Amino acid sequence: MISLNKKGIENAVQKTRQMPVRKKARSVVQVEVLQDDPPCNVSSELLQRKARPLSFHAAQVVPILDDRIRGLCTRPYPNHPKGCPNFGERPDCPPKEKHLEEVFDATQSFWALWAEFDFAAHRAKMQHAHPTWSDRQVDCCLYWQGTVRKFLRHHAQAWLVNHAGRLSKALVARQGIMYTEGPEAMGVNVTATMKKIGVELEWPPKNIVRKIFLAGVKAR
User: How far is CA 40 from CA 24, 122, 186, in A?
Assistant: First the structure.
């Protein structure tokens, strides 16, 4: 979790001012226009279009809590019959992670901070580069998740600095503002929460991947 109090905000603002100005955001996935005929199972349109750059979004939300969400980590998946190996081990994973209302002030506002990634174009590129790969290999998160997470962390920290300036100075000084990278571990039903603001999450993702953090005011 990342948090800022009044002093932290001042330091972050100073660092931001010292950062070099980026001329233009680059597309995370570069898809070349191919001269050869693409494999029959890959859309020619997807191959010939450039993947959209990663985009950052923020919106106020009302978190929908469901403690059963914390138990999803124990569901089996390929090569992990007992679920995620981090369950019960890492402090930021359930059941060690605290519930939302123990970390955030539930009487204050919450915001969803998320990145959107053109997963369909990424899959098309991977399928063309590796025509013998299975869908599981093509979709493997090792080839895209780190980039998405890094992008979101960068923009979430900048959002934290900018948005803190819009809140009550007394509130920020007294409690501070923060975000968590794992709202599900705190019992938040992220899919239902985002649906309330008109954002539909794909499970499993086929077109757009959305990685979501949750921001709010720290509990007293």
Answer: 35, 17, 44
